[in-house]
Design brief:
- There is one protein chain.
- With about 350 residues, this protein is an alpha/beta fold.
- It has helices at about 15-20, 50-55, 120-150, 155-175, 185-190, 220-225, 240-245, 250-260, 265-275, 300-310, 310-315, 325-340; strands at about 1-5, 40-45, 60-65, 65-70, 100-105, 205-210, 235, 280-285, 290-295, 315-325, 345, 355-360.
- It has three domains: about 1-115 and about 200-275, P-loop containing nucleotide triphosphate hydrolases (Rossmann fold, 3-Layer(aba) Sandwich), CATH 3.40.50; about 130-200, Obg-related GTPase Ych/YyaF, coiled-coil domain (DNA polymerase, domain 1, Orthogonal Bundle), CATH 1.10.150; about 300-360, Roll (Ubiquitin-like (UB roll)), CATH 3.10.20.30.
- The chain has a six-stranded mixed beta sheet with strand order 2-4-1-5-6-7, sandwiched between helices. Strands 3-9-8 form a three-stranded mixed beta sheet, with helices on both faces.
- Helix 3 (about 120-150) runs antiparallel to helix 4.
- It starts with a strand and ends with a strand.
- The relative contact order is 0.14.
- Bound molecules: guanosine-5'-triphosphate and magnesium ion (MG).
- Magnesium ion (MG) binds near residues 14, 15, 28, 34 and 35.
Length: about 350
């Protein structure tokens, strides 16, 4: 399951966005440090392909992919030194797949900004620095015993790789740069998969704008925010609008979005952006019992994908039958077979987004 940790200064709209995303009702009020304990919410990934397939195959139920969001307290300048609520609560997002920065662009006087001004670029610098300092603490803690271990004759290959990776990373962090700037070799990369650092995770940016800015182009708003982010990493939304949308049924929300000239909910865009930056793909199984989405990583082969359904399917994989979801909706499984739209694939087949798959195994 994709998991995303939400970070930002206090009072920038983190909990408002979390509530709209997860349709929950945690405190989101106009004072800094409103959130103290972390909030975790799991939401289904909207996917119309599943609905269409389920209708075609008269499935008993639909099981969507899910995303987990973790909303934590706001970070302030000096958090690593104990300012604000400190930085210990960052441990709650250490194991997430990606970090989502909520950046405040909305300029409403009544809503307190802890820095007393609206400046997303500087806000991001403050947050990143605090993440860098939190990582530094983690790395130093780990390096201390490792420094001794690698000198002993019984040092393992893994210890040496981790030691050299962390040494490189510490050098980068000490420069106030993100750990992902460190150039690691293959072995170091591999060992670092077992050691989570906040500043090695992919980043997403939510620009929380005033409602009257919502139809501006993404590139314009990125430039206005002054942040170094690619459009794929950025989602534009207005938290107070998302809050309204979350309280509407799907049809009303769709109509309201159309009148505002917005293609989709910011929250749907955020989930899509998460899948995209992490290179996640979806394949589908569909029959009378259920239609279900399965999350895989770009490049996963048919046996690896089958292993998501059951680990025995990976080990005992023989072959799979595959068709594109749209063809299945248009022609049915039998129709796909007759029209040559159904592929019989082996172990090397790389599963594509939107593939409907039947696995044969022993
Ligand atoms: N006008 C306007 N107000 C917003 C918007 N987003 C959030 N707010 C308001 O800003 C205040 C703070 O929002 P929260 O969601 O609690 O902020 P937070 O980032 O979770 O804050 P902490 O938990 O204190 O770190 C609330 O009063 C929200 O209603 C927005 O897009 N426009
Ligand atoms: Mg909050």
């Amino acid at each position: 399951m994709l998991s995303i940790g939400i970070v930002g200064l206090p009072n920038v709209g983190k909990s408002t966005i979390f509530n709209a995303l997860t349709k929950s009702n945690v405190d989101a009020l106009n004072y800094p440090f409103c959130t103290i304990e972390p909030n975790t919410g799991v939401v289904k990934v909207p996917d119309h392909r599943l609905n269409e397939l389920a209708a075609k195959n008269v499935s008993g139920k639909i099981i969507y992919a899910t995303v987990e969001f973790v909303d934590i307290a706001g970070l302030v300048r000096g958090a690593s030194q104990g300012a604000g609520l400190g930085n210990k609560f960052l441990s709650n997002i250490r194991e997430t797949d990606a970090i989502c920065h909520i950046l405040r662009l909305f300029d409403v006087h009544d809503i307190i900004h802890v820095e007393g001004r609206v400046n997303p670029k500087e806000d991001l610098e403050i947050i990143r620095l605090e993440l860098i300092l939190a990582d530094t603490e983690q790395v130093m803690k780990k390096l201390e015993p490792l420094n001794k271990i690698v000198k002993s004759p019984s040092a393992q290959k893994e210890d040496k790789a981790l030691h050299s990776a962390l040494t490189k990373i510490l050098a980068v962090l000490s420069n106030n740069e993100m750990a992902n700037k460190a150039e690691l070799d293959e072995e170091e990369e591999k060992i670092m998969k077992t050691f989570s650092l906040l500043t090695r995770k992919p980043e997403l940016f939510v620009l929380n704008v005033d409602q009257n800015q919502i139809t501006k182009s993404k590139t314009e708003l990125i430039a206005q925010a002054g942040i170094d982010a690619t459009p794929d990493q950025v989602v534009i939304l207005c938290a107070s609008l998302e809050k309204e949308l979350a309280n509407m049924n799907d049809a009303d929300a769709k109509e309201y979005l159309e009148t505002l000239g917005i293609p989709e909910k910011g929250l749907d865009a955020l989930i899509k952006a998460g899948y995209k930056i992490l290179n996640y793909k979806t394949f589908i199984t569909s029959g009378e019992i259920e239609t279900r989405a399965w999350t895989i990583t770009d490049g996963d082969t048919a046996p690896v994908a089958a292993g998501k359904i059951h680990s025995d399917f990976e080990k005992g994989f023989i072959r799979a039958e595959v068709a594109n979801w749209k063809d299945v909706v248009d022609f049915g499984w039998g129709g796909c077979r007759e029209k040559g739209k159904l592929g019989i694939v082996g172990k090397d087949y790389v599963v594509k987004d939107g593939d409907v798959m039947v696995v044969f195994h022993n």
